[in-house]
Amino acid sequence: MLTTTDPRSGVSAATTIEPTPTASVSVIAEAAAAAAASLSWRGRAFRADLLDAMGTAVERARTELVAVADAETGLGPVRLNGELSRSAFQFRLFAAAVREGSYVEAAIDHAADTPLGPQPDVRRMLVPIGPVAVFGSSNFPFAFSVLGGDVASAIAAGCPVVAKAHGSHPRTSQLSFETLAAACRTAGAPAGTVGIVYGQQAGTELVKHPAIRAVGFTGSLGAAEALQAAIGTRDEPIPFFGELSSINPLIVTPGAAAARPAEIAAGLFTSYTGSAGQLCTKPGIAFVPDGEAGDALVAELATRTTAADPGILLNARIRSSFDDIADRLRGAGAEPLARAAEPAADGGFTVPPTLLETTAVAMTAEVAEECFGPLLVVARYADLGEVTAAVGRIPRSLTATVHGEPTETDVVADLFEALAPFAGRLVHNGYPTGVRVSWAQQHGGPWPATNSQHTSVGVTAVRRWLRPLAWQNAPEAALPRELRDADAGIPRRIDGVLTLPV
Amino acid sequence: MLTTTDPRSGVSAATTIEPTPTASVSVIAEAAAAAAASLSWRGRAFRADLLDAMGTAVERARTELVAVADAETGLGPVRLNGELSRSAFQFRLFAAAVREGSYVEAAIDHAADTPLGPQPDVRRMLVPIGPVAVFGSSNFPFAFSVLGGDVASAIAAGCPVVAKAHGSHPRTSQLSFETLAAACRTAGAPAGTVGIVYGQQAGTELVKHPAIRAVGFTGSLGAAEALQAAIGTRDEPIPFFGELSSINPLIVTPGAAAARPAEIAAGLFTSYTGSAGQLCTKPGIAFVPDGEAGDALVAELATRTTAADPGILLNARIRSSFDDIADRLRGAGAEPLARAAEPAADGGFTVPPTLLETTAVAMTAEVAEECFGPLLVVARYADLGEVTAAVGRIPRSLTATVHGEPTETDVVADLFEALAPFAGRLVHNGYPTGVRVSWAQQHGGPWPATNSQHTSVGVTAVRRWLRPLAWQNAPEAALPRELRDADAGIPRRIDGVLTLPV
Fold this sequence. Notes:
2 copies of one chain form a homodimer. Chain A has helices at residues 22-60, 62-73, 77-100, 149-157, 170-187, 200-208, 221-231, 254-259, 261-273, 292-306, 316-331, 384-393, 409-419; strands spanning 3-6, 11-14, 107-109, 112-114, 117-119, 122-128, 132-135, 161-164, 194-197, 214-218, 240-243, 249-252, 285-289, 311-312, 335-339, 350-351, 354-359, 375-381, 397-403, 423-428, 466-472, 492-494, 497-499. Chain A is α/β, with parallel strands linked by helices. The first copy, chain A, folds into 2 domains: 27-244 and 453-468 and 479-483, Aldehyde Dehydrogenase, Chain A, domain 1 (3-Layer(aba) Sandwich); 250-428, Aldehyde Dehydrogenase, Chain A, domain 2 (3-Layer(aba) Sandwich). A 7-stranded mixed beta sheet of chain A has the order 15-17-18-13-12-19-20, sandwiched between helices. Strand 21 (466-472) of chain A pairs parallel with strand 20 of chain B, so a sheet runs across the interface.
């Protein structure tokens, strides 16, 4: 039996959920493979309706889902209701993207005389890669788990999904799966469109199964390496899209420190302590100028930190890592700056929000180790050259943030240019937490933030689950509807010219 | 000193080219890194002009390039002139794609009130990934080498390139590099936009260098594995795009065999013996129906094969592999069917075009081993179910081809559906060799044809060298021109709606 644990008390209880045995993993993967062809011939309109139905089903199960997720994560109903809304929104956004149809990148090159002689008719679009295994994260029981963006984007692509239930929220995973499976039944989707496996061993067997054609993962670098090793034993390699770790540097310019010290301190405090600091986009290092304005900002940040409530971490492993990493950071030269009161020793996975301090000049990769939880390293600097040099010495990130003033436009532009190689999203006068789910979003950075040239949030996340296929001189009946000559109701590139539907 | 060998005689001669020492590899990679930022700020219009200039430079050097390549490859002036035209065309096609600008996937989501509350302005486009190492192939001294599609697409993306000269055509590689470097100088491109290294050791050091951010490769699975292992020793992993191996099944339906036996035999003969069978898209297996029509087709194919001239292979390794693989295929059950006269024992790398025979029912992965050279396995079948089952037992390919009649549209459509999971391009009533270079082309299949979800031929090959970057609430001056509010002259997705330039 799997257990479920209340992070507020640390008390575990048995569930009715059994780890999925090897034979069942195989049956579930084969069911996904059988669903793949069936999902494909049902076409885009069917899949869009299915995604909308999933969004509606998630909203309908809101009360029950939030209650069980709160018991398993301690994230609280406000955050969890927001996250559930985001999950439902994601299903609907992908439904819209599937209807719009650009994502298939349909292109038709008619037979033509060219500078290289007569050439055949060639048509190309992206097609589903096949069944996808999804490994969700502990910190987003909805939006990066069974109801999350990897699942929604894979269904959008036309790929059946087998989710691996997260050990930190098995009951939430189960209820999420049942919610989606019911939506599939109602919509008439093939059995096997969504599946779930429980337990670490089942997850390993899942990624080794020949029917699985790609893997989506959100979690730690260590867990990713273990899965990657399992994938490495396959006869046929498959793509592994991992969102892994991120330190998310935030830079306060001298102008911004002078103009908005209290406002930035307040925003930064909220950003690094929200969801108990357990967000992949949490700012982990803040570069603050030397001098009075910087001192005021840091003092305000310290005051807020000292007065802060404890954060509830998601599980015992994250709880013990928090102390271990804080120790390592201090050992690497980060000095204690401020710390909230120690939480009551009630068995819960609670920790005090913590500020450490160093300098940009002393910044190293060791001081930039990601700490999952409410911990922020403040790095003071004399000039911005020290900051960009420091960013070049630490691991690359999902995001980099600059607070600057309207009088510093050139400074901000130069900083963005210097930071661009080190991040996937550049934020100005905001905070990297709170990721907008939209068409233009990019959530994926250079290694080790992710291992991918694609995003895991936003519409283009669908590209991970697609592969291109071309047809040469194919008869009309052998072409997918999107590539036939008649207007297909989607944007297409025809003889090199991007053409909108009539 | 590196040597160069005439495949017609097998005679080697010293060149003036030294293997690139370790220290020089580092200097060349750093020069590429230095060029990256500089190329980037020059923008798309500059790069398009540079690509056009490269195309022109290649045409101007035609006589010299074809002569040196012919001496090193034995491919002959007709083929090489055609390939050089293709190289020049590729540079110009990418120039057009860079000007058109869709490839950056520009998207703007303005700040908005959404179902998830107020959301910030987010803008996204694809940016160059950084310096790219390119390993060309022996069989395309121009179009998949230093003047090839990987180089052209990387420059189009805005990435400097360091090519590794192919050991089979070092002088062609050197002259190609000099041609491109001169075009760069004339166009005012930064030094380091193109570089070259010589020798296997230098190639290994190149992919391990931190400045290199992606690798393009066309060659054997074994060579790819060696490079992948070298890449695996890096601190930061980088994408490796490999075009590796392909057997390219071709299916003749009963109707097509009855209607066009001689025509198909002639086309198939040309396709499997062209360029001495050294094309990644060479049909390696032809499924032909049992019975009289099939017999006639096979007899004609055998007659043409028996009368054929010898093929000149590219180097001693490919020459000895040809015999080894033919032996293995016979050991795996493929019977001799027809063979041209043995070439004169003049030291050249010549081989007789060779037909082997088996059945679809007996088809195994061993009989489907790719043989680089003029060798084709004919597999006879009783019904098409045997063929689709056989395709499921052999490695996946770049292409799959069906010859069918207009009366068999349903048969062709069903075959295409069955073949789709096993190929990247489906060809109807044609031959897989002779790959059109165009917007809709797809040259990349499921593993082991390539290891990628992208193509290496055609405009979308550029996607391999790009990564997405998002800007949140950025001031206008900190945004690239493509993402500013004013019409940028390129297609963009604005608030979710694909919008063509005014």
